[in-house]
Design brief:
Elements (H helix, E strand, L loop, with lengths): L2 H13 L13 H9 L10 H7 L2 E2 L4 H7 L12 H4 L1 H14 L3 E3 L7 H8 L6 H16 L5 E7 L2 H4 L4 H18 L3 E7 L2 H12 L5 E5 L12 H11 L3 E5 L4 H17 L5 E5 L30 H13 L4 E2 L7 H10 L1 H4 L22 H4 L14 H9 L3 H7 L2 E2 L4 H7 L12 H4 L1 H14 L3 E3 L7 H8 L6 H16 L5 E7 L2 H4 L4 H17 L4 E7 L2 H12 L4 E6 L12 H11 L3 E5 L4 H17 L5 E5 L30 H13 L4 E2 L7 H10 L1 H4 L22 H4 L4 H6 L24
Helix pairs in contact: 6-8, 6-15, 8-10, 10-11, 11-12, 12-13, 13-14, 14-15, 22-24, 22-31, 24-26, 26-27, 27-28, 28-29, 29-30, 30-31
Length: 765
């Protein structure tokens, strides 16, 4: 490029204050190692929503635009007859996007409505059904070559612009949908719509198929062609029933980031949470009006100077990923190398590099091999150099992720029952369960934290249970310990241990006597604020509100916790029977989410089996309410089937003789798998969960997390270590079949003295 033109282009882009520049982040060593492995996926069976729930989906690029550039399409009409005339050319382009990292093969059926085809070719040339059938079969053939889904694409039709009305427009939509239903596409994409009303009509028809629907509008922040703001458009698409909503084509990545941000804000304000999707075009068009790049004087034949670079795409992908977009792709102008840039940018989140990276390394790393000195000097010019590849740098990079980023990218393993374990170790009074141990015996607390960390915990939770000032005053007297003193000490202990591994620190707050005593909201929230102050001061990573019996009290707690600006996790000690006032578990979950908690769930009081049922009810209620906080479970470690609203507290053996009720590590394996399969992302335990129980969780989800915990060096799942026993009858017990089907005996031949204590909740304090 001549220096004059380079300077012009460079200064133009810099002067635009391209906001995505701010989204650059250093490439981690783990990502670099992924480049060396080039691990490819084994074809799977997950649908779009499952993939979006579990991570990031990479879309494909601009099929129509690329086909025109390759000589197979007319830029004047942009119709998809190429799928019949040159199917091998279409297959090749699909394969290039697949190799670049696309998780989706989208049918080349843009502009394929029958009224559009009739206008261009006359009534007897191509039928919508013919082209959609051909487009599907080509896409499916290529998708089977990798772990990809097939998306059936429909777009706007002339009937809407011509004012023929809803019935005529939906008739065109139905015609496009029929081949997709017949051929069983994996999901539908309604794209390149200019008017929200038309896409609402399309969504209405698409939903009748029973197939997952993604809906995107070709708009910027200014809104659709009638001036309806982007945020309102997103809300209307979601309310119409689209499972995924977003933006496609027309505007460049910078404008797309602004638009999806506006959409997300409006959806959040409306209490709606569809998955988000972006597929911008690949041409810079800052300041363009409602028609975006179509209004560029260079469109369609001289757009080359406006093409975004792979590095622009890296920044775009990071920006939208950080906003919570789960489906990231491109549209017109996005070539396979652009899609590879997306896949490389989110490689850490996806746990893999695309196949095409075997011929590429990010940020110019390949230039190290150049024989020209001044070319070699460009390595890293486009971005900070790659990290060294040491395990410490991997951990350092990962540790920058907060709770929500970790939940977005995979699973988080919590810790276990700190207070209960410390009582058994001689450091806590079982009558009061207060946390003065952090001041009196900090080394004992550190040791237990370290054991949970070694067992696989991603979170070190402060030992601050029952630490409200009114509780401390009641239990220990007003002059013994202060809430601030205890919480400060607990934060410092937790952070010291968390820094020894890749762990987050969570500040724990629970119910307080002021609520039970009926002192009202102001008094309760004053207690909450007192506990929160040390957490803010010590800059913990997030807040856990836990062991609340009444949803009203936890709503008050959430209200105060949200004011800190930290991530708020809210869990209740409830079963299917509901809270202390009989409010159903599902309603409790909805109320916690609406109060502002980003993670909601269940903790303590009930065993794993009951917890699975409860979180399932919570999830159903949240789905019905259109809410999607992350889910969390931390059951207690004691079997108490059939217990009333007070769970294991009503066991006659509580707290000193619960040993026969302790769950086994194999019970924990089953629990972890059950809640994981329900979509729970934060899995831990509470009272009774020892480090070996947490290790069982970490081992059960080792495949999902891509690692075993350090403590597995001394353990192999499902009794595999027993193969080395010198006793034959013990060797026979090695393996899952034996332990998974075992019903443990208690060793007690007398029946229990009592089943459950029916004491009402008013006696609990």
């Amino acid at each position: 490029m001549p220096e004059r033109l380079w300077r012009h282009t460079h200064s133009r882009r810099c002067s635009e204050n391209f906001t995505l520049q701010k989204k650059c982040r250093p490439r981690t060593a783990r990502t670099f190692l992924l480049f060396e492995k080039h691990n490819t996926s084994v074809p799977g069976t997950e649908g779009l929503l499952e993939r979006l729930r579990d991570g990031v989906v990479v879309g494909d690029g601009g099929l129509i635009f690329a086909m025109e550039r390759r000589g197979y399409m007319n830029a004047g009409v942009w119709t998809p007859e190429v799928v019949v005339e040159h199917p091998e050319a279409v297959k090749q382009l699909h394969r290039e996007f697949l190799r670049a990292g696309s998780d989706v093969v989208q049918t080349l059926t843009f502009n394929g409505s029958q009224d559009k085809l009739n206008k261009i070719f006359g009534n007897n040339t191509f039928s919508c059904q013919q082209l959609s059938d051909a487009g599907y079969h080509i896409a499916r053939e290529v998708a089977k070559e990798g772990d990809a889904l097939v998306a059936g694409s429909i777009s706007q039709c002339p009937s809407y612009i011509e004012g023929k009305g809803k019935a005529a427009v939906q008739a065109q939509t139905r015609e496009q949908l029929k081949p997709f239903i017949k051929n069983k596409v994996d999901f539908l994409i309604a794209e390149f719509f200019f008017h929200v009303e038309e896409i609402e009509w399309a969504i209405e028809e698409a939903l009748k198929t029973g197939i997952v629907v993604a809906a995107t509008l070709a708009i910027g922040v200014k809104g659709d062609m009638n001036g309806i703001p982007a945020g309102e458009c997103a809300v209307r698409m979601a309310k119409a029933g689209a499972h995924v909503v977003g933006v496609n084509c027309m505007f460049d990545p910078d404008e797309t980031v602004k638009t999806i941000k506006a959409m997300k804000t409006a959806l959040d304000d409306a209490g709606l949470s569809p998955f988000l999707m972006t597929q911008p075009n690949g041409f810079f068009c800052p300041g363009a009006g409602k028609y975006g790049y179509l209004s560029c004087p260079e469109f369609p034949y001289a757009m080359e100077p406006r093409v975004v670079t792979r590095f622009d795409v890296h920044r775009y992908a990071r920006a939208v990923c950080d906003l919570g977009v789960r489906y990231i792709g491109g549209c017109c102008g996005f070539e396979p190398y652009h899609i590879r840039a997306i896949a490389e940018e989110v490689a850490e989140e996806r746990g893999k590099m695309p196949p095409a990276s075997d011929k590429h390394k990010p940020w110019g790393k390949c230039l190290e091999l150049s024989y020209i000195d001044f070319i070699r000097e460009r390595v890293g010019l486009f971005r900070a150099p790659l990290s060294s590849g040491s395990i410490s740098s991997i951990l350092a990079a990962m540790s920058q992720k907060g709770l929500l980023e970790r939940l977005r990218d995979g699973l988080v393993v919590g810790d276990g029952g700190m207070i209960f374990a410390l009582e058994r170790r001689g450091y806590v009074d079982a009558g009061m369960w207060t946390p003065e141990v952090v001041v009196e015996h900090p080394e004992a607390v550190k040791q237990l934290h370290r054991e949970f960390l070694r067992a696989g915990s991603d979170v070190i939770q402060t030992v601050t249970y029952n630490g409200s000032q009114d509780k401390l005053n009641k239990a220990l007297g007003s002059d013994a310990f202060t809430c601030q003193q205890i919480n400060d000490a607990a934060c410092q202990i937790a952070r010291e241990v968390a820094n020894e591994g890749n762990a987050l620190v969570a500040g724990s707050i629970n119910k307080c006597p002021a609520y039970k005593e009926g002192k009202g909201k102001a008094a309760v929230q004053a207690q909450m604020r007192e506990q929160l102050q040390p957490f803010v001061r010590n800059k913990i990573d997030f807040i856990i509100l836990e062991f609340f019996f009444h949803v009203e009290e936890i709503e008050w707690a959430i209200e105060e916790a949200v004011k800190t600006g930290m991530v708020v996790v809210a869990t209740m000690a409830v079963s299917m029977k509901g809270d202390g006032n009989g409010i159903p578990a599902g309603e409790c979950a909805v109320r916690m989410a609406k109060a502002g908690a980003q993670v909601v769930g269940v903790n303590c009081l009930f065993d794993p089996d009951t917890t699975v049922k409860t979180i399932k009810a919570m999830k159903a209620a949240l789905n019905n309410a259109g809410l999607s906080p992350y889910l969390m479970t931390q059951p207690n470690g004691f079997m108490c089937p059939g217990a009333g609203t007070q769970g294991y507290l009503s066991c006659p053996e509580f707290p000193y003789a619960l040993e026969p009720r302790v769950v086994t590590r194999f019970d924990v394996h089953r629990y972890a798998r059950a809640v994981h399969d329900l979509g729970v992302r934060y899995l831990g335990g509470c009272c009774g969960f020892e480090p070996y129980h947490i290790r069982a969780i970490a081992e059960e989800v080792a495949e999902e997390r891509g690692k075993l915990p350090p403590a597995s060096k001394k353990h192999q799942p499902w009794g595999k270590c027993l193969e080395r026993s010198h006793m034959d009858y013990v060797k026979k017990r090695a393996g899952r079949e034996y332990w998974e089907n075992l019903i443990p005996g208690s060793g007690r031949f007398q029946p229990p003295s009592h089943v459950y204590d029916p004491s009402p909740e008013k006696d609990l304090e």
